[in-house]
Each structure stands twice: as structure tokens, then as C-alpha cells.
Amino acid sequence: MTTTLPAMQQAATVTATIDGREVSVPEGTTIYDAAKQVGVEIPVLCHDERFDPVGVCRMCVVDTGGRAFAAACVRPCEDGMQVQTATPEVQRSREVLTELLMADQPAPEQDRKHTTTRDNLLFDLAEGFHVVDADGMPRGSGRGTDLSNPVIAVDHDACILCDRCVRACDDVQGNDVIGRSGKGYATRIAFDLNDPMGSSSCVTCGECVAACPTGALTNKAINNIPIRPRAELEQVESVCPYCGVGCALTYNVDRERGAISFAEGRDQPGSQGRLCVKGRYGWDYAASPQRLTVPLIRREESYPKGALSADVRGEGNGKRRKDDRPGKDRGRKPGGLVDYDEVLPHFREATWDEALDLVARRLSGIHADGGPGAIAGFGSAKCSNEEAYLFQKLLRTRFRTNNIDHCTRLCHASSVAALFEGIGSGAVSTTYGDVVNADVVIITGSNPTANHPVASSFFKQARRKGTKIIYIDPRASTVSEHADVFCQLKPGTDVAFYNGVMHEVIRLGLFDREFIANRTSNYDELARTVADYPPERAAQITGVPAEQITEVAKLWGGAGAGIIYWGMGISQHTTGTDNARCLIAMCAITGNVGKPGSGLHPLRGQNNVQGASDVGLIPMFYPDYQKADDPGVRERFEQAWGVTGLDPDRGLTVTEIIGSILAGGVRGMYMLGENPFLSDPNINKVRKALSTLDFLVVQDIFLTETAEFADVILPATSYLEKDGSYTNTDRRVQRGRKVLDPPGQARADWEIVQDLAQRLGLDWHYAHPGEVFDEMVAVMPSYANLSYDNLGLSGKLYPNDDPEHSDGTVVMFDESFNTDDGLAHLVPAEWLPAKELPDAEFPLVLNTGRLLEHWHTGSMTRRSYALDAISPEAEVYMHPKDAADRGLTHGEIVRARSRRGEIELKLRVSHREALGNCFIAFHFREAAANLLTIDEIDPTGKIPEFKFCAVQVEAIGGRA
């Protein structure tokens, strides 16, 4: 909605003449911007339209009739101003400046930018001014190079001190790493306190490289694929394959070598050209020599079935170690990736026909013998919407089962359950970019600087412009450094904290009476519940001071508009649904839904977890969250799909399927792109279940730990080798485009699923993902009006009434919610302790999560040169006092153990951890965090409690 200001409030305009062309612009518009409006280009070096102008290089000077030339990038237009942009005197000034700058530049044949992308802006200006060589000018050198970063080269001698890198780091990414050091000629850009870039706090987002106009900051070649000029490469516009932010990027492809030369961000309403280290440098996993390229069938002599490598069997260094409790296998040797030499001899190569015929025969036989309950499938949020849709359609129409799930069960299932219950929709109610319109933002249970770094850059920008940030988490992650208020609560006490905040919002009269009366239900019951949580009681439970709880209530209740962004620190608890219920109530009672700068936003973890859920890759919903146990819904899908007898009951979730296998229920599984051996809790239990299956087919791009248990392995294509659509955390549906040809006989997932469907008797004949997309849209009201073609280069937000002319809906629920009565249903929650509490033997609370450089189970990122080089090993983060009490020192190898298993990894002493807590990332198979985690689940969302279990960390030699 566009609001027109009254005439008296309209911005004043000024009229200037630029090179004889009259232009009227709002007061405050710079000469540079006004000149662009009339088609006059003014050369710049230090200026970039994404940053605040500083006017340090003086290349953009123009003649305004004053005593000195004015820098066009900072000088505002004045009414009646006469501007000349290219007089001989002005041009001579630029020429002399160029000559002076060129005096210190490396020769073109030695310049890192000129010899790669060939877009050195200073060299281009020198060519235009015919400055070939600075004869007679004193040439300096010796400021040095810095090659410490694995993918970024620094050449201080090529630096012109334009500060574009500084502003890219500060103004855009909000990382505040780059500044200046030295004096006079020795002045140069510096990382932190003049540290080498590779050992500084730099997060290798590459924004400085994208901003640098010379060869001072450049990308290094990855895997010996040379970086060449864009004109010599093919540009493929796609979307990042990692987190749910869904950043738009361009892959510059070297067709001669069949490889990506480099990637760069491109404009899109959400990400606005920004990338993080994974998006800019983490694409080479697709070229790994460990790609699966041919179908594989397990050899007869490798039965009875079980894990094939010592690591996955739970053995270390070839020996099985047990602790004093029966059945608890211990130890995992250092590794990093599945040992192909150890595993592949247990499989033989097969043709596609043989492999798919075997899969069809075995799954059909198990279904015929055991019925729908004997079959289950795990899909993947890494796959496209079309592939997820076809996968769930295959399981539902051929095997008549709703036993279909994917990693949403391990990340935001409880959030979705609470959102459906409370507002009738599992999607976000506003975008991450809407933070710019918020007065106050709560970020809770999330570390967006690591997990959603581009989204976090918008949060940091908003704070610089006045948005208050309240950060609530057990860990003092880097987000806490950008927060106005940081509440470090005890793990598992979220309900008590938010009930305490709501208690104060109500006590202080900061609730929105009109919104509550007109747009919510059950407020009285909520108020009665939170009345039992005065800040003093909440403080006792949470460890957050009572006065800070009141401060949060005052900020939140006093905000004109507020958004809550949350992550898996909210959802991955046995009380995850209750946690999310509290957040929904927090927004609703203050009227912070349905207007700009307000709303609810669970930050999605994987690139297509929103889309995979939207299209029905979950056991309780058909596409578009239509209830699987609703007879009317089932009838509609039977008609749409041309079948009868669809499963009338909700299916089993990820953890329930594992339990069903052990109980003799599920006997055959189709696993597409999932690796539950590392991603699921209580790995020992998962190992036993996978070994118990009668038949398992794994479809993936690498030999994963889960694939060791497979009867058949099908080689799929990576994200980079196929077309399809993906839906990000903002509800933005975008197209991923094929960048590379697949290796060997690898095939796109949707093609494999269709081929198998045909062998199972289904009459499927899709020729392209676009045809699948059209079928999806026909059964998904939320995606109405979208088509594969009108997604364009930037994608579209849903819902969208007019995708030809509109980007889509940013803020939802401005008039009513998607519930049956249109109201927000307030659901009160009582605080409950975690299922497994610390004790004398296991006195620490373990929290698991992600690192910036890695993603999920590491099968992609640990095969990326840059990402693995920056973060190569597993660590346990521990408070200094906890380490000292155990006699442990930073950097030593320690043992972390729980009631379910133990791992060995490096200790990182960290002030970010609260006393009594520790943190382990779950990407590292050689120190698999999920050997330790508990498989207790939230009763509503059915999500495991990854964020809380009791552990001990001790020296390898003995037990503390």
C-alpha cells in the first residue's frame, strides 16, 4: 500500500541545470544522483550507491561556479544551481588525479584484478584519460600483500584508500572489521588491529571484494579454475543453495572447463546483492571427485545389513570401545568424510534399469505384505519444490501412506504447529527486510550472524538507523554485540521469560486493547496464566534479572511496531510449541501483527524448508497445509490426482518413523537427500533402526553415513545441475537455474522419482519442472496466480494477486488471520523443565547448532575448499571457569559424553557460553554431536530436544 503525504508534508524540490539540462529533484539530492536522472554520467572511484557517500577520492568533482570544484557524490543540489560536469578544467583535474593514483599501481600484467575479471575501475579511467604510464612520478611500493585468507587476496600496493571496502564491511554487512592503520604513505587498510585478514574477525563474506575498484582486494581461484573476465564466461542467474534467506546470485561459468569461475551477488528485493561466505565461495562441492555417478547395489556378501565403516559402526581406530553400561558403543576416529575406500567395495555398479527395477520390486513387495504402514519416505529441504511435491505424491498415491517427512521436523515443526494453531498459517507474517520499519525487534533462540548472515546484515543496518534490538539467548553470540538489550537466559526457560514479559506488559498497561478485543480470542485465560509469572519469579527460573524483564516489556509494549525473529533455540525443545505460542501471544497482545515493521518470523534453516513444507512433504498435511485427516481435503486430492483410497490418517514423523522401524512397523524406506544418521538425535538408536530395515534406497549426491545402510544408492544431481523453484524464509518463490552438467550418470531428483513412479504403475509424464509447478499451483491456494515463467529473475512473494505487476505480499494479516474465525487464538503456556536435567555425573547442559561456514551434516560444505579451510574441525565451546574447574585448557582434545554416547573433539574456551553450558556444532561426523542428544520430542510439533541434554566434558585420560 502506498501512502501519499499531504501537500504541506511533501519534500521540497529544487531545480538545477546540469550540462544544460534542467532537473527538479527533492531537496538534499546529490549532484551525482541528479545527473544520473538526466543521463549524465560522472566518473567515480570511492562512490558506490549502496554506501553513504564520503567524497574522499575527488574523482567526481564538478564545477558549480564556486571557488573550488565540488564532489558530486556528496554535494546536494541547490535551487538555481548551474553545474558543469566535464569542462576542460574539470577533466584535467580528474586526469591529474588518475595519474597520481596510477603512479603506485602494479603494472597491468601484475594487477590481480586486471589479470582476472579485468574490471579495474582505476585502469579503465586511466585508459579513458590516456594515462598510460606515470613517467617521472615517484613510484612507491612495499606496503605488501596479505594472502592469509584462503579465498581473498589483499594487495596493499594496489589500494587507493577509497574506503569502499570499509563502508561495505560497516554499512552493508555490519561486521566492522576493516579500518585504516599507519600514517602518511604507510597508511593502509587494516583488519581488526592490523591482523592478517585470515586470522582476523573477518567472516569472508567477500563484500569488500565486490566493492573494491582496484586490484587491492580480489578473489583467489578455487580448485585451480581460473577467474576470467565476465565477457569470456557465461552468466547463470540463480539462488544460493544454503540457508533459508535465499540470496540471489550469479554464477560466472567457464564452459571450456565445465566449472564455475566465481560467484557474485545480484539485485533482488530481499538480499539486495549481498552474499555470505557460503554463497560466494561455497559452490565447489558439486565438483568433488566423491560425487556419486552411477547406481549402486549392495553386494550379497555384505548382508546381514549394517554400517560399513568403522566410524559409523561406532568403532575407533579399528577397535570397539564400550563404557561400563551395556550396549553403549563409544569412540569415533577423526575423519571428516565417509571413507569411500572402506565402503564402496560393499556395492557393485548397476544400470539405471536394474537399480530402479529392484527398488520398485522391493518396495512394492513390502507394501503388498505389510500395507501402507510398512513404507515411509524422508524427503529433503535441499530439493526443489517440484521434487518435494512429486516425492510426497508418489508416497501418497502409490503406497497410500502419509509416512512422509523431512528436516522441518528437526528445525521448525513446533513453530509451524503453534503458528497454525494461533494464526492459521505456518509461514512468516512479514519479511526479514521489513526490519527497517520496526521500532523494536526481538531476536530470540537464533544466531543469525552465523545461520542467516545476510538477514542479520539487515538487522544490523536497521539498528544503526534507530531500531532497538533485544537479543534473548543462552549464548552470547556475536548478535549480542549489536543488541541494545541482551538477556542471557538459562536454557529451556523461554516460557517463563516470555510469560514474565507479558505479565509486565499487562501490568504497565502497554497492551493493545482494541486489537485484543477485535482480533484475538482467549485473552482472559492468557492474562490469568501470565499473572503467575511476575518478573521476580521469572528471574528465579530464567536467571535474567527482574528489572531487565521489565525493561524488555517497556521497550516491546511501547513500540509503535515490532517484529519477533526466532530460530531453533525456540523450536528445538520438548516445549518448543509452547515457546512459539508465547511469541505469538507477545505480538498479538501488543497489536504487532498485520502492519509494516511488525509480525512473526521463524527464520528458516535450509534453502527450501519453507517450500518443501508448503508442497506437502510432511505427514499431517497435503500441499498448502491442508489437513491429511480431513475427509474433504482427501477427496479433493483424490480428484486432483485421479486416485482413490488415500490414507485417511496422519502419518509418522521423522523420529516416530525411527521408532516404528524398531517396533517392526516401517520396513521399507525411500530416502531422498536426507542423512538422518548425523541429523537425527540419539545416533545409536538411528544406527540400530537403519540396520533393521528390510530395504532402504538412498538417493543422494554423495556417499553419506546413511547410505552405508542402503540396499540401493541412486546418484542424484546437485542443486547446481538442475532447474526448479525454491521458496525462502520470506515466502519468496524463486527459480534455481541449471549451471553445470551432471557428472557421469547422475540424474535430477524429479526425473528419478518420475521414472520410479512409472515402474510402480503411475502414469506420470512430466517433461519439465515447469509442468510440475503448474500442477502444484492448481492445488495450492496460497500460490495462486504464480507461474513458472512469471517468477522472473527475482521471484515472487506469496500470496500474490498480480504477479505480473507486483512483487507480492510483504505484510500479512492486516485485516484478519487465516483461522476459522479470523482471530488470533491466544494459547497460554505453563513453564515446564527440560526432560533431562543436569546431575552429578552429567553436570553441563549441551546446546547444539551451526557454524557460519558449515551447513547441516556437512556433506556439501566440508567438500568446499574455502569453507573447510576456514573451519576444519569440531570444537566444544565452554565457559572459562567450567574449563578451569576440570583442569582443561584451550585447544586440547577432550571427551564429551552423555547417557547415550561420547565423542572426542577440541576444546574452545569461550566467554560466549554461560557457566554450566557448552555448545557443539553438529556438522562433524568424526565428533557427531547427535551421539549425545536426547530423542525426547515436543508432544505437538514432534520435534526432538536438540537444545538441551545433560553432558560431561572431561580430559581424555579420565573422568572428571
Automatic annotation (TrEMBL):
The keyword Oxidoreductase applies. One of its GO terms (biological process) is respiratory electron transport chain. Residues 233-290 form the 4Fe-4S Mo/W bis-MGD-type domain. Gene3D superfamilies: 2.40.40.20, 3.10.20.740, 3.30.70.20, 3.40.50.740, ADC-like domains (2.20.25.90), Dimethylsulfoxide Reductase, domain 2 (3.40.228.10). Keywords: 4Fe-4S, Iron, Iron-sulfur, Metal-binding, Molybdenum, Oxidoreductase, Repeat. GO terms for molecular function: 4 iron, 4 sulfur cluster binding; formate dehydrogenase (NAD+) activity; metal ion binding; molybdopterin cofactor binding; NADH dehydrogenase activity. GO terms for cellular component: membrane. This is NAD-dependent formate dehydrogenase catalytic subunit /NAD-dependent formate dehydrogenase iron-sulfur protein.
